[in-house]
Design goal:
mainly alpha; 2 domains; two-stranded antiparallel ribbon; 2 strands; disordered N terminus
């Protein structure tokens, strides 16, 4: 024992000592939780049903029935809270979204159009609303189809924020958070990688615009009827008791100067006609009849039946109230769903469900399983009429380990295709003067997602979002504050920075953004070579050890964040376990040069 340890004095362990026990702790933790965070711990004594009496069996049956009812009820209110959350964001950001879309000079820059599509979709939490704004502006000659293409790309990226927000509610358990956040990240990574490839290609060749024109020329369009909205039919009776919005106010605020109208629907009909509690009969890109108009005497108007009908509160105040309430209900329902799934899906049941969902076709047709999952995701999204609801429902299932990331990835891709087919059918229900523009925008959205599948799924080697999402999930499981940084950086700070540079002009954007993008790509390339081909690099680049610790490790940042936010969600329990291991085993410290 070195002299520094005499007298029972144990010095503070260093980071080198922590690194020594990192591998052993990781192995010990994997033995406790299973060798893979995607696997279940087996249920002990799974044959208890054979050994208990009739009363115990009856209690088990009743308990299972109540759990199933609780799961369905929690799922219903979870979906309703997503709908109300979308309404809250529309109340808070619709006016800002309209003002952003009015600046045609900014929209002419492809990067600005992409960023605006992301920001507006994040603000209104609805890709359908963002798409309807774009279609209205194209039909009103305020935008050209060429300018609208980057905006549609941004809309596709912005819609992935919902699943990321849902995954944050599972941050209490490390393994569940690792799986859930990986699932939400794989969707966003796919969208961003597709944009990085297709945005320069579209700016140079206008490939998507020309492809949509060819598809329109080969088809004879006839106005059709609105696609069935099964999910809305189930949730509308509850959500319309809370709030009803007139979405046509958003599009009219963009295409005209009438921006002072309230988005809250106060009047749902007139005497002598059936009250309209919803926007039935209005297509996705239709401008429904304005019910808040004062063209009729007040005594002839029928007040809507929801909490805020006739209220004197402003749209901003109602939006904040709905935002707080919907987030509270969403988190409670999500916690209940996860707890009930963990209670129901155990042992043999969990293994059976996971085997069925993640099963592959027998050899040599195993490669068809992923494409079948794409079709299933597209079909379910078409039935639900909402990609956000579908992806938000998949994330908790990934958290409890029912669905693997490799199977969830094609489901997310199918969801992207499903939401475009929904928009395409809704576009066919548009008025005759908007039909061509609505269908062309919907086709551009469809071809964008189809090109993404061809790029990042068709060739197995190029399925880069899966390993990137897994590594990102491992990182966020160890440092949970990274998830918040990712959320703010990806959907707010990075778009705002690109938007600010684009306002200064294309030259400034290229001069500042070009070197930054090149530096990031160079760092990624060096990291890949350090892991796989270090001999190809110069000696100074074979390791980042020569850099300051805060430039190549998150440990200093983690200590700073933990000191500023000493809560469980921000703390690094992995680091704490290494500290405890060092203090409980002084021989680890004794082996170091102190």
């Amino acid at each position: 024992m070195p002299n520094s340890l005499a007298g029972g004095q144990v010095p503070n362990p260093t980071l080198d000592a922590f690194d020594l026990v990192d591998r052993s702790l990781r192995n010990a933790g994997s033995e406790e939780r299973g060798t893979d965070p995607w696997t279940f711990s087996p249920l002990k004594n799974t044959d208890q049903m054979k050994e208990v009496g009739m009363a115990s069996r009856l209690r088990r049956v009743v308990s299972s029935f109540l759990k199933a009812c609780g799961l369905l009820g929690s799922l219903y209110f979870f979906i309703c809270s997503l709908d109300i959350l979308s309404s809250a964001f529309q109340l808070l950001g619709s006016k800002m979204a309209g003002d952003i879309f009015k600046d045609n000079v900014v929209l002419s820059n492809p990067v600005s159009g992409l960023v605006i599509g992301v920001l507006v979709t994040v603000l209104v939490q609805s890709s359908s609303t963002s798409s309807s704004i774009v279609v209205s502006m194209v039909a009103s000659k305020l935008l050209t189809v060429q300018v609208s293409v980057p905006i549609i790309m941004g809309v596709n990226v912005g819609t992935s924020i919902t699943s990321t927000l849902v995954s944050m509610a599972q941050s209490g358990d490390r393994d569940e958070f690792q799986r859930a956040f990986s699932g939400s990240a794989v969707h966003g990574i796919f969208n961003w990688l597709t944009v990085l490839v297709l945005l320069p290609l579209e700016s140079a060749t206008a490939a998507l615009e020309r492809l949509s024109e060819l598809a329109l020329g080969a088809a004879s369009l006839q106005p059709g009827q609105q696609a069935p909205d099964i999910l809305k039919a189930l949730t509308r009776p509850f959500t319309h008791l809370i709030i009803q919005l007139d979405s046509s106010v958003i599009t009219s605020g963009v295409t005209s100067n009438t921006t002072n109208s309230s988005l809250i629907k106060h009047w749902c009909g007139f005497r002598g006609e059936t009250p309209q509690g919803s926007s039935e009969g209005c297509g996705l890109f239709n401008s429904c009849t304005e019910r808040n108009s004062s063209a009729y005497p007040e005594e002839d108007r029928l007040l809507c039946h929801h909490l805020f009908a006739g209220s004197k509160l402003t749209d901003l105040a109602v939006g904040f109230i709905l935002l707080a309430g919907s987030l509270l209900v969403l988190c409670v329902c999500l916690v209940l769903i996860v707890k009930l799934l963990n209670s129901v899906l155990k042992g043999r049941i969990a293994q059976a469900v996971k085997t069925v969902i993640n099963a592959d076709f027998p050899f040599p047709f195993g490669w068809l399983s992923g494409y079948l999952a794409i079709l299933v995701g597209a079909g379910l999204t078409f039935l639900l009429q909402s990609s956000s609801v579908f992806t938000a429902a998949i994330v908790p299932l990934m958290g409890v380990g029912v669905i693997d990331l490799e199977r969830a990835y094609p489901l997310f891709l199918g969801s992207n295709i499903g939401t475009t087919t929904t928009a395409l059918l809704a576009a066919l229900a548009s008025p005759a003067d908007m039909l061509i523009f609505a269908v062309q925008v919907a086709l551009i959205h469809f071809f964008f997602n189809l090109a993404g599948i061809l790029l990042w799924y068709l060739v197995p080697v190029l399925r880069l979002p899966i390993p990137l999402a897994k590594r990102f999930g491992n990182l966020t499981a160890q440092y949970r504050w990274v998830a918040i940084v990712y959320l703010l950086f990806t959907f707010l700070l990075l778009p705002l920075a690109a938007f600010g540079l684009s306002l200064a002009g294309g030259v400034v954007l290229a001069a500042v953004g070009g070197p930054l993008v090149g530096l990031v790509l160079l760092i990624i390339l060096v990291n890949v070579l350090q892991q796989h081909r270090p001999s190809w690099l110069p000696r100074c680049l074979q390791s980042w050890a020569w850099l300051p610790l805060w430039l190549h490790s998150l440990e200093p940042w983690d200590r700073l964040v933990t000191a500023c936010c000493p809560c469980r969600a921000c703390s690094n329990s992995h680091m704490s376990s290494k500290v405890a291991h060092c203090y409980e085993n002084p021989q680890v410290i004794a082996s170091q040069q102190l």
